[in-house]
Predict the structure.
Amino acid sequence: MTKITRSVTPTGNDRPDSAVAATMTLEFTEENTAAHAATLEDLFTPVELGSLRVRNRFAMAPMTREFSPDGTVTDEVASYYARRAAAGVGLLITEGVYVSEDSGPSTRVPRLFGEVQLAAWTRLVEAVHAEGGLIAPQLWHLGAERGDHPAYNAELPTLSPSGLSSSGKSRGRAATIDELARIRDDFARAAAAAKDAGFDAVELHGAHGYLLDQFLWEGTNKRDDQYGGSLEARTRFPAEVAAAVRDAVGPDLPVIFRFSQWKSGDYAARIANSPAELEVLLGRLAEAGVSVFHASTRRHWEPAFPEAEGPDGQLGLAGWAKKVTGLPSIAVGSVGLDESFQVAFQADGHAGVSGLGPVLEQLGRGEFDLVALGRVLLSDPAWIEKIRDGRHEEIRPFRAEDRETLS
């Protein structure tokens, strides 16, 4: 297929910042160029997520850092987020945040409960707002992935739908109905605390093989009560959590749900084997109060259901989420990189910078409202500014050691 190289020069006059972007060369396939003429400038236009107006199309993806001793975000962590807000990120989504005493294994993952912890979050939110950014916490319960020997509250049992890890091994035990009700209420309490701390939205972590996803996926949900069996039944508990969170934060605060097909250690896993199944799954969550879907993929440009006929066969997972629900979506997965995310976990991992052509093609097709950036913002807080201003040679490629700092 013929490729066409063209230059786009965004003026930036209607952006929140007035800097003029330098010319950027991008590649488009011939068949997509005429029909889908998204430009770099389109990524810098404001977008509305319900009542929330985001200054551009860029979000920061949640990335666990473990720099919060005793679950309390420090001034250094606040500065880490504020730097990225100052450099142009429209919506920052925090690292996963524990919602309860039995959420996860680490003493250094931040929590959304406790007087000291909540006061620290308030200061962090204020620092981000001072730089013009918006911020949402990712509410997190690991379920079986908490492990059998957690460092944090080892005396508490590890609970999940069926006491199974993503690999199918026995881990912890199945939660009772009463325990599930308590966990649901923990999510709601954390969401209310987030609103009180000044957060602009909340995200539920329903991806990657953690608790909510363990209910969605038949590989980890073997329950024979109302929470197991059919896809509709497996969606019941995540939907109950979403409804409780919606009640806790009111009708206006955006509630984001992050979901994925893949699981930790099983990249071929699927919770929805067809667009129809995806519609059932996401539809129940939307009815419960979810207002934005964050589709986590390893490579954002890969079609989610390539077997679909016609143009739908090109759609990524975020595109399908928007198509079947009519709600805003967030795309993510190796944006601006030439290697998928697993290099982040390799001792000598490295990912170079690649073009934004696929992102612009997807935006031109209306597949997403925001695009989330992960590793590129770990390595280079000013990545968005450099893209906007055409300073591509200054971009710092991702290296695995970037995980170990709060630069």
